[in-house]
Amino acid sequence: MSVEKEKAMKVDWEVTRCETVEVEGIPLTTKSYAIWDKIWAFQARPDDLLIATYTKAGTTWTQEIVDMIQHGGDIEKCKRAPTHDRQPFLEWVVHESLPSGLERAKKMPSPRTLKTHLPVHLIPPSFWKENCKIIYVARNAKDNAVSYYHFHRMNQLMPEPGTWEEFLEKYIAGKVLWGSWYNHVKGWWRAKDDHPILYLFYEDIKENPRQEIQKVMQFLEKDLEKEVLDKIIHHTQFEIMKENSMANYTTTSPEIMNHKISPFMRKGAVGDWKNHFTVAQNERFDEDYKKKMAGTSLTFRMEL
Ligand code: PPS
Question: Residue 21 contacts by C-beta under 8 Å, 6 or more apart in sequence?
Answer without folding.
Answer: 27, 28, 29, 30, 33
